[in-house]
Amino acid sequence: MRIEFRNSKPVELLDLTASFMALGDYFKDYANQTTGDPQRDNLKLYVKEIKSGSLIADMVALAEQAEWILEHKAVLAGFVANANDLVGYFLGKDESKTKFDPSIKQAKQIAQFVEPVAKDFGSQLNMTVMEGGVVNVYQSFNIGGLEANAVQNGVAKYLGPQLPSSQILTDQLMVLEQVKNDVSSKSGDRGIVETISPPRPVKLQFAQEPAKRAVLDLETNPLQCIFQVNVEIRSVGGKPAMYRIIEVTDVISREDE
Length: 257
Description:
By secondary structure, the protein is of the alpha+beta class. It is built from eight helices and ten strands.
């Protein structure tokens, strides 16, 4: 597989290194998910040769067992196709949006991979699958500086604003994914606060017993209710890791909606 940066100005070494690291991590994750290899992280990208001219790097996928590579040589072509779909998603192309929903990690990986091109509007990044020195034009990835910048903007919008490590919000609507029928339980409670983007189940911690009892002492199934809560959101890396429920101020039955 050949990676080519057609740069119009010098590329910062840190950007190039981070780009290759993101590509390697992205490929490793893709191989783990698609090849069915029982040995996790067995298939990795290695730089075979750096060529002169533009920034050109020929890469190969290596595993501990050579015969395993021969059986799964199509993984490189599939990986390039996946990268095209990922870029298409963040460029807002409808055909890419129907194929998959990227993970946060994938979003960060593709943004880092195209970083050297995004900083140079006159540049272009090409990734092509090769076999025996022959380029397979049907499995290629091409992106220019303007598109790379648009991809990074799409990723930033997708990831949303970074949350502070701790903040208290009042009168937030919360639904439960699961809850332990034990007022003293410290684990097993998970819920979704609708205003947090993207909304996903997060570990719950009830600050005081009355807050947990307001959930457990209902005559109806708490999983079928909407709770208005005062909550402390504790985050790691800008993403919510725990909701500490300070007080339940109201309960709404979904049947009342």
